[in-house]
Design brief:
single chain, alpha+beta, binds adenosine monophosphate, 536 residues, binds magnesium ion, two-stranded antiparallel ribbon, six-stranded antiparallel β-sheet
């Protein structure tokens, strides 16, 4: 039958100067700073009472022996010490995530009104305990080994361990040149920073593993960009996002060490990552790298299935943008599909359509095969063989997660042998849900669907509706919404950035302000041919 042939194709498309210390702005940092895991009674309202630490990243590894900031090929280290370059002009704080400030960073939201905070999040002041670092990594870009890449415009400014005992790595993006800047200027423009700020927060509230964004600042510094690579170079403004992740290590973090034969460092980095972030793996287990690989394989499959469940295309699925913790990182020319098209490519710079949405699952497999290549020197022949078998299981794992997610979206309970068909039929024919009823095969699909719902044990329409509305978002960050916010932001009106930040915190709940803004409607006609490029 046609659909049986088509189903496997689903895989394809589913197919130190401290802020307070040496610069003398505040009194010495609060000596009674709580120990990790202890809950302070109040959140810090001033940054003087707040600190970061870079020790846990500096102590385990050799650091780049050169400390001057010039572009070079770096070897035998994981990080280079390099300070952010402050903007020359006035900076303004234009958006914050209160949830990140309060619930991750233990900061009182009133802190956002202070000049210390503004200077901190714009890279002008280094907070107590922070030694800013740029990470050395490589990567496969669009299928080929690209050599050294690294944090070319990001500074890892330290680790914050919060009152819940969670360890978060803080990074400024757009904060100036590093040894890894290659030909870049170390900056990020406002439009791409607005998009990263909004989308990382939106993905979090959709329940999709992701880095977070704490703040967005804009400067008046000129940053020149040829947005569509057509020779039309324009002046834009530099911006910085303060972003957070439990870890910023990527597949490319390991790849570069294997490529340059630094196997001792490879082992040390892997052991560090496993110890810090994979608590279920025992450090004395001789199969720990295999276990690590197995976890990354299944969690990457899980992440991509989740992307697909909301129609999210990352846009630049290079190995340097694929997290070892399987979270969504490095938001660039991403996009959410407005109506289903397996050939949807959000990134206009992707001429070969390599990272079209329908390729994400198979690109995930490619990236994991590059991870395996990087791990190979540390595996014995038996482990190598087992690792290949683990990788072979990726497709099945991906497909089962994908099916599970779509079953939940459709409100299906229990098991039925025709569920795959029901989902495949829906996705193939009816993804543009608003036009669902107009499709010639709709009544056929609905008949099957209603029949299937009858087999939901102990269910009712009310119960099912409640379940379904908690997994099918009413609002996602469609391209036109991000674009509308960016256009206003370019005119110094940040109201829509703030509105979207608020609305997307509750993507499953109908909200009046969002309805008025048209966020649950078809995209407006002006947005039909919107383009996003790699230029950022
Ligand atoms: P991305 O596509 O943003 O993930 O970046 C790929 C690589 O290019 C990373 O090594 C970035 O640090 C680097 N990069 C991108 N834009 C710039 C820039 N404006 N200045 C310096 N490095 C950059
Ligand atoms: Mg990147």
């Amino acid at each position: 039958m046609w659909w049986r042939r088509w189903l496997p194709a689903c895989l394809a498309w589913g197919c130190v100067a401290a802020l307070c210390g040496s610069r003398g702005l505040c009194p010495a940092p609060n000596a009674s700073r709580p120990e990790p895991g202890q809950c302070p009674r109040r959140r810090a309202a001033e940054l003087c009472a707040w600190a970061l630490s870079s020790d846990s990243l500096l102590d385990p590894f050799p650091v780049d022996v050169i400390q001057e900031n010039y572009v070079r090929n770096v070897r035998n280290c994981i990080f280079s010490i390099v300070y952010p370059t402050p903007f020359k002009s006035r900076v303004r704080l234009v958006a914050v995530s209160e949830d990140v400030l309060e619930n991750i960073l233990d900061l009182d939201v009133s802190v956002k009104g202070s000049s210390d905070f503004l200077e901190f999040v714009s890279g002008a002041k280094v907070i107590f305990g922070s030694v800013p670092l740029a990470h050395r990594y490589g990567g496969h870009q669009f299928g080929s080994w690209a050599g050294q890449l690294g944090d070319g415009r990001a500074h890892l400014i330290g680790v914050y361990t919060n009152r819940h005992g969670e360890r978060w790595e803080l990074q400024l993006k757009g904060s100036g040149k590093t040894p890894y800047s290659r030909n870049g200027d170390g900056r990020a423009v406002l439009r791409s920073s607005v998009r990263e700020f909004l989308c990382s927060e939106a993905m979090h509230y959709l329940g999709i593993p992701t880095s977070r964004a704490a703040s967005l600042i804009v400067s008046d510094d000129d940053v020149w960009r040829d947005q569509f690579y057509n020779g039309n170079i324009k002046k834009e403004r530099g911006a910085i996002v303060l972003r957070l992740a439990k870890s910023w290590f990527r597949i490319g973090s390991l790849e570069i060490l294997t490529h340059s034969g630094e196997l001792d460092l490879l082992r040390r980095l892997l052991d560090f990552i496993i110890q810090e972030h994979f608590p279920s793996i025992a450090m004395n287990d001789s199969n720990r790298y295999l276990e690590f690989f197995s976890t990354v394989v299944s969690e990457t499959a899980n992440l991509i299935a989740m992307w697909m469940s909301v129609g999210f295309a990352h846009g630049v699925c290079n190995t340097d943008n694929f997290s070892l913790l399987s979270i969504t990182i490095d938001y660039g020319p991403f996009g959410f599909m407005d109506s289903y098209d397996p050939n949807f490519v959000p990134n206009t710079s992707d001429d070969e359509r390599k990272y079209k949405i329908g390729n994400q699952a198979s690109v995930g497999l490619f990236n994991l095969s590059k991870l395996l290549q990087a791990l190979k020197p540390l595996l014995d022949p038996r482990q190598n063989q087992l690792a290949s078998q683990i990788l072979e299981g990726y497709g099945e794992y991906y497909y089962s997660r994908f099916t599970e997610l779509f079953k939940t979206k459709l409100g299906l309970l229990g098991e039925n042998e025709n569920d795959n068909f029901l989902i495949a039929f829906l996705l193939k024919e009816f993804w543009a849900l608003q036009d669902l009823g107009k499709h010639k095969l709709f009544s056929e699909w609905v008949t099957m669907y209603l029949l299937r719902l009858n087999s939901n044990k102990g269910d009712s329409d009310t119960k099912r509706r409640t379940r379904m509305t908690t997994v099918n978002p009413r609002y996602i960050l469609r391209n036109w919404m991000a674009e509308s916010a960016v256009q206003k932001a370019n005119l110094n009106d940040f109201s829509e950035v703030q509105l979207l930040e608020q609305v997307l915190q509750h993507p499953f709940q109908r909200q009046e302000a969002a309805e008025r803004a048209g966020y649950s409607l078809h995209p407006p006609a002006w947005a039909k041919h919107l383009k996003v490029s790699c230029s950022s």
